[in-house]
Batch of 3 targets.
Target 1
Amino acid sequence: MVPDIRDEDILEVEKVLRSGMLVQGKKVLELEDHFAEYVGTKYAVAVSNGTASLHIALKAHGIGKGDEVIVPAFSYIATANVVELVGATPVFVDIDLSSYNIDVDQIESKITERTKAIIPVHEFGLACDISRVVQIAQKYDLIVIEDAACGLGAKFNNQHVGGFGEAGSFSFHPRKAITGGEGGMLVTNSSKLAEKFKVLRNHGISEKNRTEFIEAGFNYRMTDIQAALINSQFSRIDQIIEYKQKLANIYIQELAENKNLLLPSNQDNNINHAWQSFHVMILKNSFRDKLISGLNDIGIGTNYGAQCIPYQEYYQKKYSLNCDLLFPNSMRAFKNGLVLPLYEKMSEEDVSSVAQNLLSEFLNC
Ligand SMILES: *Cc1c(COP(=O)(O)O)cnc(C)c1O
C-alpha cells in the first residue's frame, strides 16, 4: 500500500507550515465542511485518528462500566478495543462470509438488558446491511455508531455510510482511501452530539465559554498539517474510488476461474463498494501463509485482512471464548483471508500481473 501524495498535496501542507497556524485552525474547519457535505450529514468533527473518533463517540453517549456493546468478531481490533477503553464489555457477533460484515441475523440473540450500542463495521469498504442494523437498534432502543474507517465512498441504497446511526467514524490512516498520515472524522446529524465531540476532543473545554472545562476530555485534535493533506486528496475522492473499482474488477475477471479462491461480492446494485481492500478467501486451509511468503519473495506485498478479535491474546485471557465454535466465519476469514494490493498508484497491468502471479503461486502450495 503506497499512498498517492502528489505535488499539489505537498504544496498545501507547505502553506500551512509557512502560515504558523498548525493545530485545529482554518484547514480543519474547511475539511469538516467538505466532509459533512460529501457524506450528507449535518456535522463533521475532525480528530486525531479513527480509534480516537470511536472512543469519543462512546464517551459522548456515556457508555461505560456495566454496559455491553455489540461488535463484529472480525474487524480491525480497534473496533473492540475502544469498548474496553471506556470500561464496557464488547459482545461479539460472527460475520457473513459473503460480505465480511456483521451477520445481522445473529444480533438480536446477543441483546441483553445491559446492551447500550451496536458498532457495525463497513469492512474493507463494503457497506453492511445498515438499514436492518438501525431497525434492530430502534426496536431495542440502542445507539448505532458506524465504524466507517474503511468506508469513505461506500454507499448503501445510494446513501453514503456514516449518517445512518447516531454517529459515524472515519479514519485517514495510510491504509485508507485518503490519508493525513493519521487522522479521523466523526459525523452526526445531532448538534448536541457534535458539540460533545468537540468538547471531548479538546480537553473538555466548553465550546460556548472558552474559560470553562466541562468534561475530563482528551487531546484528540487534528492538526492543520493533516487537514491540508487530507483536504487536498479529498478533492479527487470520486476519481480515486472509481479507479479502485476499475482495478477491483480486473482482479475479479482474472481470478474468477480459480476454484481455490472465494472472491469478494460486488453484485448488489444498491451498494457501492469503495474497495478500501480487495480481500479474498483461500478455500484450502494452510495455503494462505505459503501464498503470502511466496508472493513476498517475488516482491508482491500481501497480508491477512483483519483479526478474529476474541481470538487475540488480550481477549482470550479476559473472556476465554471458544472462537471456532462461536465465530466460525470470523476464524475462517482470519486464518484464510488475504488482502491483495489495490491502490491508486497501481496500473491496470500491475493488477493483472499480481493476479497472474497469485495463480502461479497456487501451484507451489
Ligand atoms: C483502520 C481502522 C480503524 C482504526 O483507525 P485508525 O485511524 O488507525 O485509528 C478502526 N476500525 C476499522 C474497521 C479500521 O479499518
Target 2
Amino acid sequence: MREELMSLMEEVRRANARLIAVSKTRTPEEIKRAYDLGLRDFGENRVQELLGKYEQLPADIHWHLIGHLQKNKVKYIAPFIACIHSVDSLDLLKVIDKEGFKNQRIIPVLLQIKIAEEETKYGLDEPGAEDILASYVKGAFPHVRIVGLMGMATFTEDLGKVRLEFRKLARFLELVKKKHPDYAGEWSELSMGMSSDFEAALEEGSTMVRIGTLIFGPRD
Ligand SMILES: *Cc1c(COP(=O)(O)O)cnc(C)c1O
C-alpha cells in the first residue's frame, strides 16, 4: 500500500486538494495502517459503522460522513464529526443545526448536489440548493457552517461525461458565490472524485477527493 499511497497523497497535495480515505467496510486495523502512513481524514457512509471505528481509533482522525444520513442518526455523530458531505434536504440541515446547538459547536457541512443522470442518486437540485443557501445567509442555521458542495458523477466508463458533470458542479459553486459574495470565502470546498475519476475531478477544481478502492483495494 505504501508506495502507491505516497504518490496518491502527493498528487492530491499538488492539486491543493485533500485526500479523504473512504474506509467503509474496512477494519480498524486496515484504517490504522493508513493512519500510520500519514492519513488523517477518513470517510464513512454508515453511522453505526462510523461510531464503532471512532471509538477504537486515534482521536486526531477527522471523520467525514459521506453517505445518505437519516435525521434520527445525526445526534450520534454531532459531537465529533469533522464534515457531513451529504446534506440533501432542508429538514436534515435543520436537524444538524439543532444538534450543533446541543453540542455547542458549529458543524461543517456540504450540500450534496445531484449531478448524475441516475434516478437513484441522492442530492438536491440546483434550485433546492439555492433556496437553502438563501436561508443560510439570512442566519437560519447558526450551528452549521456550509463550506461547499459535494457531487457524485454518473457511474460510467465515459470519463468525458463524468468530467462535464464535475464541471457543472464547479460552475454552480461559482454561480452561488457570485450571488452571495460575502460567502465566497466560506464556500470553498468541492467534494468530488472517487477512485475511478479523481484525476478528472482535480482538474475540474475538486478540493476533496473521496477515495477508497485505490487506497485499500477492492471491497467485497
Ligand atoms: C464508496 C464511496 C466512495 C469511494 O469509492 P471508491 O470507488 O472506492 O474510491 C466515494 N464517495 C462515496 C459517497 C462513497 O460512498
Target 3
Amino acid sequence: MASSLHTLFFFLAIFICSSGYAANVPSNGLVLPVGKDTKTSQYYTTLQMGSNHATVNAVIDLGSQFLWFACDSYASSTYNPIPCGSKKCEIAKGIGCAGCNLPPRPGCTNDTCGASPYNPFENMLYSEGFAEDTLYSKNNVKVSELPFSCFHSEYLIGFASIATGMLGLARTEISLHKQVANKFKLPDKFALCIPSDKGVGKIYIGGGRYTTPKSLVSTPLIINPVSTYPIYTEGDPSDEYFIDVKSIRVNGRPLAIKTSYLTIDEKGVGGTKISTINNFTVLHNSIYKPLTRAFVKAAANMKIKSIAAVAPFRACFSVESISSFVPTIDLVLPGKNVYWRIHGANSLVKVNNNVSCLAFVDGGKEPRTSIVIGGHQLEDNLLEFDLVSSKLSFSSSLLLQNSSCSRV
Ligand SMILES: *[C@@H]1O[C@H](CO)[C@@H](O)[C@H](O)[C@H]1NC(C)=O
Ligand SMILES: *[C@@H]1O[C@H](CO)[C@@H](O)[C@H](O)[C@H]1NC(C)=O
Ligand SMILES: *[C@@H]1O[C@H](CO)[C@@H](O)[C@H](O)[C@H]1NC(C)=O
Ligand SMILES: *[C@@H]1O[C@H](CO)[C@@H](O)[C@H](O)[C@H]1NC(C)=O
C-alpha cells in the first residue's frame, strides 16, 4: 500500500510565513467541542468554515495530516484554491496537480495543488486539490487561510452519519494546531479530551488554559523514522504520535513481552502510537495473549467471574461479579515510576446487561505498530500534545478525580 515518491519534493519549506492575524486571540487559544457518535464510536468536532460560516462536523484523527470535508453545497467568497507549484503547495507537501472538467466551484478548479486525503475507515486514498479558507470557532477565533481539502460527500463512506469531514491533528505544517501556532504566535500545543457516551469533550489549541487535572504525567513523544501514511516521500518520518512503552503490568506484575515488539525498528515497524480512530486498543498478538491471560487470572483472584467471550473480545466477565475494582493495566514509560494506568471504565466495555469484556483487540501477528492505543482507553483522559518540547502529558482517568472530559 505504501508508495514513496522519491523525486517529487526536495524543497520542503521548513517555516510558514505567519500572516499575522494577531488580533482576536483569546488567552485560551482556540477551543473546539468534541462529541461522540455512539453508533460508530467516532469522535468529532464542529467548526464553521468560509464566509457563510458553514458548519462542518469533522471526525478527529490524530494520525491524519490535514482538514478535509465535503463541499458539495459549499459556497464562500473567501475560498481560494492553492495553485500547484506555489510555496503554499510545497508547505502542504502537495502531490501533483489537480484539474477538473466541470464548471468551476469549490473542489473543482484547474492547476490546483494535489492533496491525498485518506479515509481510514475504508482504507481509501483519494486524489483531490488543496484550498484555503477561514475557520471560525465558537469562542470567536478566526483562522484565515487555513489549508484543507475539499471533496464530494460520496467519499464519506464509513463515517458517522453526522460527520461531513475529518480534522487531522498529526504533526504536519498544515494541521490546525500548527497553523494556529504560526498565525497567532502561540506555542504549538494542543490538548484533547474525548468524552464517553453523552459527554461533550474539548480540544484546546495553542496552549489554552483549562482546569489542569491534579496528576498530569509527561513522557517524550518519539518519532517513528518511517511514514505511516499510505503515500509519502522516501525519508519522511511518520507524523503520528508515538510514545516509548517499555513494558506492561497487570495488577503490578510485568508481562513477558519481547522488547523487539515495543521498540520501533529501522523500517518503522513496532512501537506504540495513539489513535482516535480505533475504537479499542489494538495489540500485536504476542502482547494480546499474555495481557489477556494475566488479566483473566488477576480478575479471578478478585472473584470476578469469566464467562463466554463476545467477539471481537476474548476475555469477558459476568457484570454481576464485578465490584468497583478491576485489575489495573499499566503502560510503563521511560523514567522513574512513570506509567499510564488504564483502569475502570477504560479497561472494560459493557457489551450487554450481563457481560463486560476486556476492551482490547487482537491485531494479529504482523501489525505495522504493535500497540495502537484506541478511543475507549482515551475517553475521559486529558492528553496534552506539546510539540515544542515534544512530549505528551496525560491525566489517566479523570473519573477517578471526580471529573470528566465534560468538565475540563
Ligand atoms: C467501532 O464500533 C462501531 C460500533 O460498535 C462499529 O460499527 C465500528 O465498525 C467500529 N470501528 C472500528 C474501527 O472498529
Ligand atoms: C480546466 O481546463 C480545461 C481545459 O482548458 C477546461 O475545459 C475546463 O473548463 C477547466 N475547468 C475549470 C474548472 O475551470
Ligand atoms: C442477562 O441475565 C438475565 C438473568 O440471568 C437473563 O434473563 C437475560 O436474558 C440476560 N441478558 C442477556 C442480554 O444475555
Ligand atoms: C464531585 O463533583 C461534584 C460536581 O462538581 C460535586 O458536587 C461533588 O461534591 C464532588 N465530590 C467529591 C467527592 O469531590
